[in-house]
Amino acid sequence: AAQNLAICNDIGKASYLESTIASLFIERVRGLPTAPDIVKAFEQRYKIPLAEDISGEEFVHELAQKLFNGHIETAGARILRDYGKGSLGRFALELPPRKVVN
Fold first, then answer.
1. How far apart are alpha carbons 64 and 80 in whole angstroms?
2. pTM for this prediction
3. For residue range 41-66, what is the model confidence (pLDDT) as tens digits?
């Protein structure tokens, strides 16, 4: 639950490392039904391939090297901010529970 709050910027930034939360966010995105579309949005926005064999942490580090002179916290903050603004598309991290019909 705390991870979700951090991803959505609903708890104080002093409570977590943005690079770590951004890495976890990327891993969570990969498990969503719309993951291929979201991965494509990541690749288009940041001009970095998000191949299946690249971890969320590695992606954050690559983004840091490419755009932020190696500052991984700045890269993590950018990813989280872009998600919050809808720059990566609009999608939910959790789907509602399925209703069981008896």
1. 14
2. 0.82
3. 999 999 999 988 999 999 999 999 99
